[in-house]
């Protein structure tokens, strides 16, 4: 059953997407006598949580009001005091949350504290899925202690991402590419391979130019540090560029990059390659909640084979390249038997008018 107040809270939370990491996006609405008396949405820079902002807007009117919030109020002292305590002190009589907070520091404790103080509490299961989707990366990070890794690619209908010769122009339309920028906007980090940098001299920036809680961390997998010092991605480094390499790389090249403000991450993996699992562990330690992979055929397969990919977002254009030399979305050794194919579930199709579509799916693990 639809709830206008929870719909409003979700709308407020969506407005803060991209501006809250490593925290979740949360919206809160205080209602009394059938009217909204306070609204709030959290952003990392603003510090205060959505519930506190709604309480401040409502003032003394909060006493006897009902709070609709997209995520369980916190019960621990982090950057701010517990929201549950503030709600008790303000005299709120009822709290309706869309879902419990998966953060182990909360995980039901906020609702219990409210209940113990005599406040009526409820989890609106009708909105749990929508609230969880809103904070997918945060929830995944809380439950697995690692960032959500999404493999993105633009493909022809026959699964090709590049032609054997001239690759000028785009596979997908401007409309599809604009949608990709929204995914970048909601990502904490983005990974590509040195081959893509050498071929495209790309920047990998968030081109929406909207406010972010932190800069998009751009990462290049480059086992021997071939990245040109005068490339656009190095020239634009401002604490937001990391090169993933191995101990076989030149120490002089490493120092030259670090001098230009580039983080050089030495993670040795099997076969002289970089270790993508160690990269994911590093991102988790630095509280990056999400990683987007936009790369070529080899790195795409390496990420899938390493088991770091959680989901895919493939954009399909109404084109066919054909041929045995055109690159598939995932190269490498591949799986040798159909029965060994990687399986996906929770598949969603997204229409991109007039003739394109995207496939979103989760890797079975």
Description:
The chain has a nine-stranded mixed sheet, sandwiched between helices. It has a five-stranded mixed sheet with strand order 2-1-3-4-5. Strands 7-14 form a two-stranded antiparallel ribbon. It starts with a helix and ends with a strand. With 365 residues, it is of the alpha/beta class. Helix 3 runs parallel beside helix 4 (109-116). Helix 9 links the parallel strand 9 and strand 10. It contains twelve helices and 16 strands.
Task: Give a quick precis of the structure.
Helices cover 28% and strands 23% of the residues.
Measured on Cα atoms, how large is the radius of gyration?
23 Å
- Overall shape: it is elongated
Low-confidence stretches: none
- Structural class, from helix and strand content? alpha/beta
Looking at how many chains there are and whether they match, the oligomeric state comes to single chain
Number of strands: 16
Strand order, main sheet: write it out.
11-10-9-8-12-6-13-16-15
Number of helices: 12
Please tell me the overall pLDDT: 94
Written as H for each helix and E for each strand, in order along the chain, the element string is: HEEHEHEHEHHEEHEHEHEHEHEHEEEE
Keywords, separated by commas or semicolons:
365 residues; alpha/beta; 5-stranded mixed sheet
